[in-house]
Amino acid sequence: MSEHSLPRALAHVRARIEAAAAACGRDPSGICLVAVSKTKPVEAIREAYDAGQRVFGESYAQELVTKAEQLADLPDIEWHFIGHLQTNKAKLVARAAHVVHTIDSPALARELGKRVASAERAPLPVLIEVNVAAEPQKHGAAPVDLLEVMDAVRAQPSLVLRGLMTVPPDDLAAAAATFETLVSLRALHGGVAALPELSMGMTSDLEVAIRAGATIVRIGTAIFGARDYSV
Q: In total, how many domains does the chain have?
């Protein structure tokens, strides 16, 4: 085990969120911290849970299901699916996720809606992933297709549209422009009333995202350490 202290790292991330919110006059309680636990062992998730963290993000469908089963004794844990979702994995995510951030096509909305309905569970909150910067290596709906995807989500009684998500370029200036564009897209498609959540911001750019209006930040490395932590 390295010298990485997960509780101390988690406290530091929370302090960063509070400072960023204060700097732009926002209430930090309006910003949800998703601890990105993909590839991390369940022991690390339990450690973060013991330190007060309740919301965790997973990117792989089977890993999400396995961890949800292994940590089923933690009744108030909340699982967010934040990775690219293939339609053939929708059934798995429909069983285990509390929120899905990565709807990017009408076909995926229809398939996930069908699977959630079959699971006979409460309606599933979802966000639409938008590839704002049109990066070919990244997933997400094109901005011009956003309305079509929104309509597809809203056509599914088992899904609840909650907002938008994006993954920005690594450059901070480009990230800031990406976040501002996502805010503008929300304004064009019904504003806060229609799309209350903006999932944007990671370890390197959470302050920039919060300044732009993020309501959800997805933080992995700053909490759990490098990917080989405790392997």
A: 1
